[in-house]
Design brief:
The protein is an alpha/beta fold. The protein has 22 helices and 17 strands. The strands form five sheets. It has a five-stranded parallel β-sheet, with helices on both faces. It has a five-stranded mixed β-sheet with strand order 13-14-15-16-17. The longest helix has 21 residues. It is elongated. It starts with 11 loop residues before the first helix and ends with a strand. 38% of the residues are buried.
């Protein structure tokens, strides 16, 4: 029996106890001890193993007890992992420290009061986990009462804002050891608050919560914080000078999150799926953390799990299901002409050159397109292919990482286009077709093309779908695509429900050069005649039939009529 893949598991203890497949990241513990930074901030995209990594750190270092004060032994979890081979200078830290472990994921709420309440509940859960402190002989009665007040929900706003600092003091007093603080998804409350409109009060609360426990706290051994985005010190880490930030540009801890090529190859070999290596690389590889090539771990384990059951299974964009990908939608919705061209450039496989801005706030994201591109880069929607320095500013070449992310862009653009067509007034186009004014038809279609984002290499089927979408927005005509007519299939036929009205035949061509567009229109008109497309319409009783040859070159359109 092969180990089952740990889809959805975020605690190393549950993975080891259930004998699930585990990609060993335990050497991150050695690197943490070697670097000796007091506050470590790791920024990585969603679903790249941040929560699981924190659980590993906690289970290794924590001197853990039940609520009733019974010792919990987690040493066995690491017996078969790489850290166990690193020597006594590292293993002597195992199960030696009290740990505060806090996730801020639950703060994704519609208003500040609910978000703050969700964070307080998380704090209370951590107080519950360490409730054995109430019986400690090393804590003063006044501290025990304050502990109870926080746990029971009767504390003051100041007590909640400094709750982590107070808990660290209680733990250090009881254990006689400084405390390790682990904070997961620290920027979830900030991103949510920005989107929901209560950014300022949330910033103030999070700042108080963090500064009290991380800044000049004599009870702090070290801290590890994770999130998707690096937030400027000015917004949340004001005056916090002991923080070391490890973004995806940093060479340290490069392989601690996500899967390396060797790890993916070993997994494929273990499950007998080596033939999937090329396919998996195209779909889920492409990230560069520091100098290290990294795969998306969430998508890898989901796809391999599916491929184990069905060897013919196709890759899917698993990562897109982890959120609404609202930032991509905002990019497309708000794109000006230049941004639309840049999106097309990315979809065409050509990189963009952009300056790096690591220290941005959520308020900064939409202040400039540069900030938005940086946000997409640091959250995993773009990758770095190269970097260089110009006039003291570091620039990076940005590209779409893989086919999975490309599919997210494409689906978002298609959704946007459908909505745009739905909201477009096409009456001027319909009137121009009815009146036979070719220049007006061409001008309307070209104008709409300029407002769209293309990712089909300007092939004829792209224009076919584009024009059909515009025409279907009108309720006056029935629209048929590739309908059998005469001796073949015409591209688009428009006709009124009644034969007393009129019908229109539209034949489409594409040109390789702008100067060839007129020839394309003539070829389209000749095809309409040669293939006798109008015969079936005459048989239906239509006597007024208009015929147009339409040729496209990129976003230019030329129309001629018979």
């Amino acid at each position: 029996m092969k180990h089952v893949l740990p889809i959805g598991y975020e605690d190393i203890k549950r993975i080891i106890d259930a004998d699930l497949y585990y990609v060993d990241k335990s050497l991150m513990i050695k690197e943490l001890l070697d670097t000796k930074a007091q506050v470590n901030l790791f920024t990585r995209p969603r679903r790249f193993g941040k929560t699981l990594g924190l659980s590993m750190i906690r289970r290794f270092f924590e001197n853990e007890f039940t609520m009733r004060g019974e010792k919990i032994d987690n040493g066995y979890l690491f017996d078969q992992l790489n850290i166990s081979q690193c020597g006594e200078e590292y293993l002597c830290h195992q199960q030696q420290y009290p740990v505060i472990n806090l996730s801020l994921k639950s703060a994704k709420q519609p208003d500040f009061e609910m978000a703050r309440s969700a964070l307080i509940k998380e704090i209370q859960s951590e107080y519950r986990r360490h409730y054995y402190l109430i019986d400690s002989e090393l804590l003063l009665d006044v501290d025990k009462q304050r502990y109870r007040n926080i746990f029971e929900g009767n504390a003051t706003p100041l007590d909640y804002a400094t709750a982590l600092e107070f808990l660290s003091q209680c733990l250090a007093a009881h254990h006689g050891k400084n405390v390790i603080v682990l904070i997961d998804e620290y920027d979830v409350p900030l991103e949510n608050a920005y989107t929901a409109g209560f950014y300022e009060p949330m910033i103030l609360f999070i700042r108080s919560l963090f500064e009290s426990v991380l800044k000049t706290n004599p009870c702090l051994e070290f801290a590890v914080i994770t999130g998707c985005l690096r937030i400027s010190r000015e917004s949340i880490f004001t005056g916090l000078n002991n923080i070391k930030i490890y973004s995806i540009l940093n060479p340290y801890f490069a392989d601690s999150f996500g899967f390396t090529q060797n790890e993916v190859s070993e997994m494929l070999a273990y499950y007998g799926l080596q033939e999937k290596s090329t396919e998996i690389k195209e779909w889920y590889d492409g990230y560069l953390f520091g100098p290290t090539d990294i795969y998306n771990p969430w998508s890898i384990i989901n796809y391999i799990d599916l491929a184990r059951a069905d060897a013919k299974a196709f890759p899917r964009p698993y990562w897109s299901n982890t959120s609404a990908n609202t930032i991509i939608r905002e990019l497309v919705d708000n794109a000006d002409f230049t941004t639309r061209q840049e999106i097309e450039q990315l979809l065409d496989g050509s990189p963009l050159d952009k300056p790096v801005h690591e220290e941005i706030t959520y308020e900064d994201i939409h202040q400039s397109s540069e900030n938005l591109w940086n946000f997409l880069f640091f959250t995993g929607y773009l990758k770095k292919t190269d970097e260089y320095q110009k006039e003291g500013q570091i620039y990076i070449k940005l590209a779409i990482p893989n086919r999975e992310i490309q599919s997210i862009y494409k689906q978002t653009i298609l959704s946007w286009f459908r909505q745009k067509v739905k909201d477009t007034d096409t009456s001027a186009l319909i009137k121009a077709i009815e009146n036979g004014t070719c220049d007006d038809i061409a001008a309307f279609i070209s104008g709409q093309l300029m407002e769209t984002i293309s990712f089909f290499d300007y092939a004829e089927n792209y224009y076919h779908g584009f024009l059909s979408g515009l025409l279907k927005a009108s309720q006056k005509y029935l629209i048929y695509s590739n309908r059998e007519s005469g001796l073949g299939r015409s591209d688009i036929i428009m006709k009124t429900p009644s034969a007393r009205g009129q019908a229109v035949i539209l034949e489409l061509k594409t040109a390789k050069q702008y100067t060839q567009m007129a020839d394309g229109c003539q070829q389209a008109l000749k095809q309409i005649e040669d293939m006798a497309y109008e015969e079936s319409l005459k048989n239906e009783g239509y006597t007024t039939i208009k015929k147009y040859g339409i040729c496209f070159y990129r976003k230019e359109c030329l129309v001629m009529k018979a």
